[in-house]
Amino acid sequence: MGPMTVTAPSSSGTLRPAPGAPADDRQRAWWRTAVIYQVFLRSFADGNGDGVGDVPGLRSRLGHLAALGVDAVWVNPWYPSPMVDVGYDVADYRDVDPRFGTLADAEALVAEAHALGLRVLLDIVPNHTSSAHPWFRAALAGDPAARARYLFRPGRGPGGDLPPNDWESCFRGPAWTRTVDADGRPGEWYLHMFAPEQPDLDWTSPEVRAEFEDVLRFWFDRGVDGFRVDVAHGLVKAPGLPDARGADRRTEPHPGWDQDGVHEVYRQWRAVADAYDPPRVFVAEAWVPRPERLPLYLRPDELHTAFEFDPLHVAWRPGPWRRVVERGLAAAAASGAPSAWALTNHDVVRQVTRYARSQPPEKGSNEAERARWGTEAPDLELGRWRARAAATMTMALPGAAYLYSGEELGLQEVEDIPDARRLDPIHTRSGGTDPGRDGSRVPLPWSGTEPPYGFSPPGSAPTWLPQPSGWAGLTAAAQEADPGSTLRLYRTLLARRRQLMTGPEPLEWLSAPEGVLAFARGAAQCWVSFGPDDVALPEGWRVVVSSRPGVDAVLPPDTAVWLVPVGAPEPAA
Ligand code: GLC
């Protein structure tokens, strides 16, 4: 493969300070190269002993995140919620669920994080509320103004017995549920792209728009630095809610997703965020079916970044990975927004497990991955080496990067949660055929040799999902003491990334033997071997970071290294 240069956005990009601009403008573009840690709050740390992670638990473990070297945290929804979908069913956007703490805890968290140099992003869920939200309760009670904030429609067919259109819920089954009128007779249907307990809002409603701008301000006024925007491509639906006629929402245009009208919403949100000092930021969860439309969300007056989703499912193979990186950097060049890389999150099978089985030709999927549990035994040691190599590669890429709770400990997916303990609506709505996402959401092991591994204080209620036996060696405390651990690798990666991999230089592919990807970032290089052979590293270069201990002149399979020229000064620890 020949050398090829992909121009990455500069580290300051569109926010490059104009001559005479205030000196802190560069500082304001922190998000362009940041490493952001996703705190899955329920499973991070339990402060009050109820077996569920909470804000006091997170506050008590902020030191772990500061020592890891991340720039910011993103906290999954912490709002009052019936927790049908782990809090993505919000009943009150301006408070904290009592199981997670209080608003005062939230304010203290923001202050303490800031004192440690960590920014705080929250998760806003604008596509739908909980069915327990006062607006939806009023709508069900027949209040016309409240109904106009959701998508109620008469059914089709005799007696209106059929759903208003053919859309399917992302959690399986129809995207419509029929209501019962006050007189006990079947009434209209309402739309829910996810669970029935998550009714979709009607974003043509001025009241809905005003409400969310106010919610943004509520949290920005409390010092929150930005939001991850849940289902950012979903808010606006095609007028008239036409049938999708079998269109696959993931790969084909679909009237329920990625409609042009959504951009007006984000232009208004950007104005709200820009009115703050420093300006607040957004990262979009936008699974657009046509990737060429993603840059539309990233125009300078809309959202700041959007997750790259290809890495969540790409096979551990050099060709597919190179294509993923090239596509991401080309998108960044087209939009001027930095890539936001992630290897995993709370919705996908953990990478250690994805890489622990035979690899698909190009990419996999959650469903395909989970379907082979129980039939193909995972080689977790192999999966862990590959996951470490993947992290070493990703941390060298231009742009921002997201880490997900427990990734830095090398946790695997927990496949054997008993069905009766599974809580993900995907499990129930699939009739139990798909285990769902719980296996990636198991409470973190902090210390000790058996559950709850320091997650909860001694004598606490059982953890909300069971932890496996065999995590004693993966606790943060055990890994702290082991220089070859995954935790120590991540710390080294984050520290050296700042020194070596966040400059404005483009990424330049280098020629490399079969099975290897190699690229330069300024004065440093990253080499990644996908196997199967040992490969000699170039002469005149030395290893400063390695995903596997003891790598020197030869790169073993499933390993990645960062190199600097021999004689270059040792990067500070
Ligand atoms: C997003 C979240 C996912 C949630 C869904 C519905 O995809 O990441 O966890 O189930 O939105 O809110």
Automatic annotation (TrEMBL):
<feature type="region of interest" description="Disordered">
    <location>
        <begin position="420"/>
        <end position="468"/>
    </location>
</feature>
<feature type="compositionally biased region" description="Basic and acidic residues">
    <location>
        <begin position="364"/>
        <end position="373"/>
    </location>
</feature>
<feature type="domain" description="Glycosyl hydrolase family 13 catalytic">
    <location>
        <begin position="38"/>
        <end position="441"/>
    </location>
</feature>
<dbReference type="GO" id="GO:0004556">
    <property type="term" value="F:alpha-amylase activity"/>
</dbReference>
<keyword id="KW-0326">Glycosidase</keyword>
<feature type="region of interest" description="Disordered">
    <location>
        <begin position="356"/>
        <end position="375"/>
    </location>
</feature>
<dbReference type="InterPro" id="IPR017853">
    <property type="entry name" value="GH"/>
</dbReference>
<keyword id="KW-0378">Hydrolase</keyword>
<dbReference type="InterPro" id="IPR006047">
    <property type="entry name" value="GH13_cat_dom"/>
</dbReference>
<comment type="similarity">
    <text>Belongs to the glycosyl hydrolase 13 family.</text>
</comment>
<dbReference type="GO" id="GO:0009313">
    <property type="term" value="P:oligosaccharide catabolic process"/>
</dbReference>
<protein>
    <submittedName>
        <fullName>GH13_30 / GH13_23 / GH13_17 / GH13_40 / GH13_ 31 / GH13 / GH13_29 / GH13_36 / GH13_16 / GH13_35 / GH13_4 / GH13_20 / GH13_2 / GH13_19</fullName>
        <ecNumber>3.2.1.20</ecNumber>
    </submittedName>
</protein>
<dbReference type="InterPro" id="IPR045857">
    <property type="entry name" value="O16G_dom_2"/>
</dbReference>
<dbReference type="GO" id="GO:0004558">
    <property type="term" value="F:alpha-1,4-glucosidase activity"/>
</dbReference>
<dbReference type="Pfam" id="PF00128">
    <property type="entry name" value="Alpha-amylase"/>
</dbReference>
<feature type="region of interest" description="Disordered">
    <location>
        <begin position="1"/>
        <end position="24"/>
    </location>
</feature>
